[in-house]
Amino acid sequence: MVRVLWWYFLWHYSHSFESYFRIWRTILWGVFHFFSVPFLVRTLVAPLMRTGETYAKGFDPAQWAQTFLLNTIMRIVGMVARLIVLAVGGLVMAAAVLAGVVGFVVWLVWPFTLAALVVAGVLLAMSGLRMIVVS
Questions:
Q1: What value does the mean pLDDT of the chain take?
Q2: Which residues are CB-neighbours of 35 under 8 A, at least 6 positions away?
Q3: pTM, to two decimals
Q4: At how many degrees (to 10) do helices 2-12 and 61-134 cross?
């Protein structure tokens, strides 16, 4: 039994760390690519859904100004939409990092917490039995 506990502790504090960090890295990679961060940064000032007007041929300053204004507005709307998605992605990424850190701390203390709970349960059960026998 002692040998099994020794091998468990050896695994828990060596090999499982590598697995934990590999899984955590995969989750962070998944969040990063789920929100398409590289693509959104690369196309930050592109018009929303490629919506825009083409410039008319010839010299018409009013038509040119109208097209320029519409294209500028569509680029601003696209940038705002992409920034919102990037902000949400950043929040989800921060939550994933925080969850990974908390999970790692829980993983570190879990064997000792489990042992303490078993001992506390046995002691509580024994004190409860003593109270029943005395009554």
A1: 86
A2: 85, 86, 88, 89, 92, 93
A3: 0.73
A4: 160
